[in-house]
Amino acid sequence: MSNVAVVILNYNGKELLKKFLPSVIQFSGDARIVVADNHSTDGSLDFMQEAFPQIELIAIADNLGFCGGYNYALRQISADYYVLLNSDVAVTPNWLSPMLALLESDKKVGAVQPKILSFREKHQFEYAGAAGGFIDSLGYPFCRGRIFTEIEEDKGQYDDTTQVFWATGACLMIRSNLYHTLGGLDETFFAHMEEIDLCWRLNRAGYKVMYCGDSQVYHVGGATLDHANPRKTYYNFRNGLILLIKNLKSHQLIYKLPIRVLLDWIAAHQFLFSGKGRDFLAVFRAHGYILAHLFELFNKRSEVLPYEAGLIYKGSIVTAFYLSGRRKFSDLSFNSPK
User: Which of 69, 98, 300, 305 could form a disulfide with 214 if both were Cys (CB 3.0 to 4.6 A apart)?
Assistant: First the structure.
């Protein structure tokens, strides 16, 4: 498996490396393992050199964020396939082989993710990725196994292999040539939703993004930026709008962008009435960023090519979840491609 490079981006994650890197070393066969340190200040580099001298290290002089850090590191790594792996992921025996087999069986498969379960609640899916990601007609992301805050138990319902719209950046296996040809992760995102943007580009380019239920990992989640952190709220709302501006067709963007902005305002006032004033302000800071950089963001729009329409939920996942009570993927009138 020497044509596979497992790349872990670390930022002040010495304790996570201590806890989770041994499973990566144990269960990754002869895959190349690289830790790229994003200018940590917690002694991560010294720790790695002492505890894991056999692991390749890339020291990044500044904190470039999730996107910039990976782009910097992957430009220096030669391999047929990259695995972008969060530092808070525990892998399992034979986690790589099924995903690699899937990529090598079909040249149109561009990226793959495994089943992502919670490290803390191992019978449940994990928020970031679960059993593969989709978006609705307004660009809201959701997963098989997780819609908004509703997380399903793993009862074998997603032990399949199927095409999805996006794969999680917590554990993403991708063809290296496609990663670089498509421009890698867009550093405008800094962190959060950058993998959805990359997968959207993969879809537009005619490649499939797949979920592989034969591979399984456990993710802590929120180790770097907790879900309740207002900074997470800022990136969530800001990057959601960037996704639409970059990727929607022009005639769709004209009416869908105002709807998303309106829904953001509603969400912001819900934060305010719930006593979450910092989250309320985070939404408006996100909109302020969009307004200040609107011209720049529109210049990022590439040719919007056709993609598999069946991968996008035609309705509103917000309406389905909050008004119609559809809390599980199986509740949706939505048949994803096989």
Answer: 98
